[in-house]
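Lab channel / #folding
Pinned by the channel admin:
"Please post every new chain as: sequence first, then the structure tokens as a reply. Keep commentary short and put observations after the output so the thread stays searchable."

First post following the new format, from NK:
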Amino acid sequence: MSDKAQFEKEADLCSAFIEAATKGGTWKAYPETAGFDILLVRNDGVQIGVEAKLALNAKVLAQILPGHINYSYASTGPDYRAVLVPAGKDGALRSVCAALGITVITCRHEQPGDRWYRIYGPELPNTRYVDSSDWHEWAPMKRCDVPDYVPDVSAGVASPVSLSAWKVKAIKLAIILEERPVTRADFKALQLSPTRWTDPYTGWLRKTDEGYVPGPHMPDFKAQHPRNYEEIKADRDRWMPGAIPMVTRPKQGQQEALL
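Reply from TO:
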């Protein structure tokens, strides 16, 4: 079977690699995270940012390199950067990747019954030994932020719906709205800006005397991230803010009665 036939889509390539790379539990894969197709995180916090393509080309090199270059080159990012391509599709740019400190990972389908068959290479860096000919340490000042939940999206798809830190907070607000209206105190507790939510032109929320309730154009975060939505909901006792009544100004008639 040819490599092209093995992986017709980048999503298939990413799926095969993630399944193989995360066996054993040393590495956890976060699809479409921190601007990478895959962010691999080792159990001690070490990170590998991975961009996938069906062939090694200049476009994937531009994607894996940091977008903002300063005196420290990449002040925030993973410990290692890599491109993922099917076996036999690494081409002449492999030497360019080596010069840039980019690891080229090649991947192929599993071969049942062959215990010595390697699905991908090179081996991921471990805590005992790192082959410097394969892996270049980028030494970022700060590692990528990792979400509390593994995104329930597929890596390598076009226009992915990412699970950002903002999206997690938005899902929490949506879960509160299932039980009661929200107030500005809820936004403050979740560290979520209310501007977009309370703007009447967005139609996300509608103001009532008890607080804000879903409006006609409230995004369906549950449809976007069904598994993550239920995971966050299951953790409600850990993050759910207490209900605080909405402070409202007395109406004109009520003001006159108080005088």
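NK: The chain is about 30% helix and 15% strand.
TO: also worth noting, The longest helix spans residues 165-177.
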